[in-house]
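User: tokens in, sequence out, please.
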């Protein structure tokens, strides 16, 4: 697939690494082209300015903080015919809480800003888990996927599985409210409770 990753921080860089390793055609973009170029070179991807980076993409991974999403989408221009993956969480400055929830979510708010279908995914995983890949001692790391667009969700599930991760269908985009809360708990467990960043939430099913 042709994938554009917007953002080259820890999460964006990890996404570029894993998508490139899975054989996808990846383009990296962001506010500073030097940063995008460094990550692109490191992982054998391309880089491009914001206003042209998504022109040929099938999927756009929005790997920027929630507060920067509106500006990023505006700079990307029209995303008609593309799919947007939102990996963000609406975190407080200390990362120990959410700024919105109950009645909306980052995923739902981002969906209001674009005509492209939005799929919530990867937000429950630390960048360090993404960077290390899907393999854990007991099982492949699961990625929760929520969207109101069935076709877009199916495409993203295919993408996730190509990267070696497992998937859990989390229903419609409204359920991003719950996924973002799960991410908040994961962050607390990782940092507040001292479990570290090589942890990931999973759902168990009795056979």
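Assistant: Sequence out:
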């Amino acid at each position: 697939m042709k994938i554009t990753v917007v953002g080259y921080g820890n999460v964006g860089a990890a996404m570029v690494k894993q998508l490139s390793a899975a054989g996808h055609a990846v383009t990296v973009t962001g506010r500073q082209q030097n940063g995008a170029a460094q990550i692109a070179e490191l992982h054998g991807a391309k880089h491009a300015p914001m206003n042209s980076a998504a022109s040929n993409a099938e999927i756009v991974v929005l790997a920027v903080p929630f507060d920067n999403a509106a500006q990023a989408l505006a700079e990307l221009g029209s995303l008609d015919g593309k799919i947007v993956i939102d990996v963000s969480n609406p975190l407080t400055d200390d990362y120990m809480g959410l700024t919105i929830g109950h009645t909306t979510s980052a995923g739902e708010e981002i969906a209001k800003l674009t005509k492209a279908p939005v799929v919530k995914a990867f937000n429950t995983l630390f960048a360090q888990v993404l960077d290390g890949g899907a393999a854990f001692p007991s099982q492949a790391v699961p990625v929760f996927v929520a969207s109101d667009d069935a076709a877009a969700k199916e495409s993203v599930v295919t993408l996730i599985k190509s990267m070696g991760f497992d998937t859990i269908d989390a229903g419609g985009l409204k359920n991003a409210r719950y996924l973002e809360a799960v991410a908040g708990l994961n962050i607390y467990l990782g940092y507040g409770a001292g479990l570290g960043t090589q942890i990931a939430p999973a759902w168990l099913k009795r056979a």
